[in-house]
Amino acid sequence: MAERKQYYLFANWKLHPARLAEARMLAGIAKKRANRCTQVLTVICPPAIFLAELAARYSSHRLSFGAQDCFFEERGAFTGEIAAQMITDVRGQYVLLGHSERRALGETDETVAKKLRAALAAGLTVVLCIGERERDEEGRYLAFLEGELRTALAGLSRQKLGKLIVAYEPIWAIGKGAESAMSAHEVHETSLFIRKVLRERYGEKAAFAVPILYGGSVAPENAATLVRDGEVQGLLVGHKSLDPRAFGEIMATLDASL
Ligand code: PEP
After folding, report:
1. How many Å lie between the centroid of ligand 1 and the Cα of residue 18?
2. Residue 63 forms beta bridges with which residues?
3. pLDDT of residue 173
């Protein structure tokens, strides 16, 4: 088991909120609560257009910022894209890659792999998102997860693993109520499987140092159980991260769980 020094709590704001003023308000509340934590590092991934301002105003020792995606080229004729270096330049430290909502728009494992290399080269820490669309009794979803992981990491050296986090997000559990989240037991089983794939590829020591997160319908009522019994090193939270009360409770609950 990876040594637990802290939990990660990622907020994926997706395409919210509509206004910069609201983004400032949410980040300000999150900063106050995050700074009260001793065991949790919170990372907010807002829409890219808000990132520079929020990271400049609200970063702290317990609150960092990241992007929801980046491109694999540094510059050029790529309308609408954002380079990894641009994220670091405005104090973003993390990037989510391979989120299922990006994959649903056509992103392939190969594209994720190229983005991952570019992001690591720019000095970002990458949260590589993987997750099956559905579970089947025969366990084909495990081969699917392994494929996503192996393709994204193809050719990546062990030395680069220090800036890798894997987020396991079963697609069927995303965006619903707490009762739809995966059971902590299944989270644990799947995180062991992910760890096994990493171990086969990189050896015991390097594999065990990679934090694994769970995401999918995380709420105040299931956060502690998911991390403790699921034996993951943190959570990736979608819609509840836009509810300041719920997100504050998730933070406090994680902080008390370690
Ligand atoms: C997500 O989309 O990354 C996610 C975890 O969403 P939610 O918490 O809304 O299920």
Report:
1. 18
2. 42
3. 94
